Amino acid sequence: MQVHPQMMAHNLLRSMQGPFPALDELRIGRAFLLLEVSADGQLHVAEVIVRQVRNLQQGVQVVVFIVYSTDGQVLTPGDTIERQVDLEAEQNWTLAQIHYY
Predict the structure, then answer these.
(1) DSSP 3-state assignment of 11?
(2) Is residue 10 predicted with pLDDT exceeding 70?
(3) If 46 and its partner were Cys, which of 34, 60, 89, 97 is the partner (CB 3.0–4.6 Å)?
(4) Measured between alpha carbons, how far is residue 31 from residues 34, 49, 78 in Å?
(5) CA-wise closest residue to 96 among 31, 1, 29, 24
(6) Which of 32, 76, 78 is nearest to 53 (CA)?
(7) What is the structure's pLDDT at 79?
(8) Tell me, what's the pLDDT at 2?
(9) Per-residue pLDDT tens over the stretch 76-95
């Protein structure tokens, strides 16, 4: 049985995706892994630092600074990106907290 790459990426993302971090965890300067499935089914992973969080009526808008990315063409290190999150809707991206030991 052949598995479609988009399905594999989606399943991997789902297995790594817990609940979206609570608003009080999205503090400026906190580092996360950003996991995102692109339109063509590729899984992109980036280390990001939270730069700004805005609580909107429709959800939350998060601005992150990209430190490192597995695909510099999509998520260029040194750039910032904004994502609006509906905390109750399924997303094609997530933030996973980095635990340093």
Answers:
(1) helix
(2) no
(3) 34
(4) 9, 4, 14
(5) 31
(6) 32
(7) 95
(8) 46
(9) 999 999 988 776 666 667 88
Q: Which two tokens stand for residue 55?
A: 């609580």
Q: Which of 30, 38, 34 is nearest to 69 (CA)?
A: 34
pTM, two decimal places: 0.72
Amino acid at position 71, single letter = D
E-assigned strand segments in 31-87 = 31-37, 43-56, 59-69, 80-85
Residue in 12, 32, 11 with CA at minimum distance from that of residue 21: 32
Q: How far lies 13's CA from each of 29, 54, 96, in Å?
A: 24, 25, 10
In angstroms, rounded to a whole number, what is the distance separating the alpha carbons of residues 56 and 52? Answer: 13
pLDDT digits (tens, 9 = 90+) for 11-44: 555 555 555 677 777 889 999 988 887 777 778 8
Token representation of residue 28: 């400026």
